[in-house]
């Protein structure tokens, strides 16, 4: 969510792990607050970036994010997954610490 000259603005993305993330909700003011309330209720991480929200708010609901934003959105999704202890399918998780490995 971000503060804009006209008030608050929020967007929500959905990602299935297979296709590009899609815009699932967007709104200003009261609708933005409702989007954030639902996110908090479901413990969805919230990321604030005014420029990114401005760009994504130009999309229509159901649109995939533009390819130019893949890396930015991927970094945000990866961090959100990390916060929730999730990893992509096939990812084994962090490497074991070398401190715990037996010596020669």
UniProtKB/TrEMBL annotation:
Family annotation (InterPro entries): T3SS_substrate_exporter, T3SS_substrate_exporter_C
UniProt-listed Gene3D superfamilies: secretion proteins EscU (3.40.1690.10)
Record Pfam families: Bac_export_2
Keywords: Bacterial flagellum protein export, Protein transport, Transport
SUPFAM superfamilies: EscU C-terminal domain-like
UniProt record similarity statement: Belongs to the type III secretion exporter family.
Function: Required for formation of the rod structure in the basal body of the flagellar apparatus. Together with FliI and FliH, may constitute the export apparatus of flagellin.
Protein name, entry field: Flagellar biosynthetic protein FlhB
Organism: Stutzerimonas tarimensis
């Amino acid at each position: 969510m971000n503060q804009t000259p006209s008030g608050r603005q929020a967007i929500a993305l959905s990602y299935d792990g297979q296709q590009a993330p899609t815009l699932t909700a967007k709104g200003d003011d009261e609708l933005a607050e409702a989007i954030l309330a639902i996110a908090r209720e479901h413990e969805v991480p919230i990321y604030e970036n005014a420029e990114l929200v401005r760009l994504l708010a130009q999309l229509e609901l159901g649109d995939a994010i533009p390819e130019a934003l893949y890396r930015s959105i991927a970094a945000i999704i990866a961090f959100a997954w990390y916060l929730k202890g999730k990893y992509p399918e096939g990812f084994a998780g962090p490497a074991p610490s070398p401190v715990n490995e037996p010596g020669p």
